[in-house]
Predict the structure.
Amino acid sequence: MASKKGVKVMKVAKKVAESGSKSTFLKATIPAGMATPAPPLGPQLGARNINIAQFCKDFNLRTSKMKEGTPLPCRVSVNADRTYNLVIHHPPVTYFLKQAAGIKKGATRPGQEVAGKVTLKHIYEIARLKSEDPTFEGIPLKKVCERILGVAHSMGIQIVETVQFKEYQRFLNQRKTIIEEEEKELEAIKQAKLLRV
Amino acid sequence: MAVVLRCSCTLQNIARFIPQYTHEVLIPIRSYAVKGLGKIGGKIGVKGSGGPKKKIDLPVEGDVKKLIMNCSGLNYMKEGPEVKLKEDHEYPEWLWKLNTERPTASLEGLDEDSDIYWYRVRKYAKAQQRAEMKRFKRFIK
């Protein structure tokens, strides 16, 4: 029984083979400097008849100046002559928000718990950068800010007037312990599942 | 498919007379757990189909002072200065008027003529449908 992703790849390959000149658009988030021919990227490229090794080399070259591992949303469109257009966007808003708040994980129950705190200034700076993305072309900066606020709310990041040093330090330490406990619980559930199967 | 048996099943007959239990009783169809077995069998057979993603641990700024003074992580290049946050007056006026509260959608106070009202009505109807589907999930094949 083929996996979901396997089926998807087959479908794309079939589509490309059938349509001939038409090609399917690829949306993927690739860590900077870490494009590998391995799945999940490899089969996705292969299904669209893109030279995988060349793509990885090209991508890693273009992202060589960026911090390794930064998630980068990419959009790849393929031409009829097997050349591709690779557009690399700025990292996702969730990444920026987590970095700005100094946290690694968002909230597991957004709305009921707070994962981190940022100020409106942070939001503005993030919006300024993200507005350069093709998706935000022609959209006023205010709207971009509102979008980012929405993302912040969905991951449990609170927007405050100012972040007080001592208070926030305490808050981060508390979050650390909470996250450790949550991870332990998740591990326990995972182990239990393995034992059952 | 959800099952509503119109048979002379004892359980169904009893349920008809107990109002609060009527809506709870849907006779579940006994079916073989084909899906589950299939998946496990498939996993053993298929060779490493897109294995578990390796989690990349990204470094996060630990110094709270730096978190306050600049927008950490915004400059994701290897070299280059951190983006410093500017003074209050250097930011546009509309920024301070943005609604930072988590939006709680409700139908109160909305005009029935507005689009938003009906978007929300639809949203709630969908959410309700989803909740119902979840409740009767085990009776639906």
Remarks:
- Chain A has two domains: 23-88, 93-195.
- Chain A touches chain B through 51 residues (CB under 8 Å).
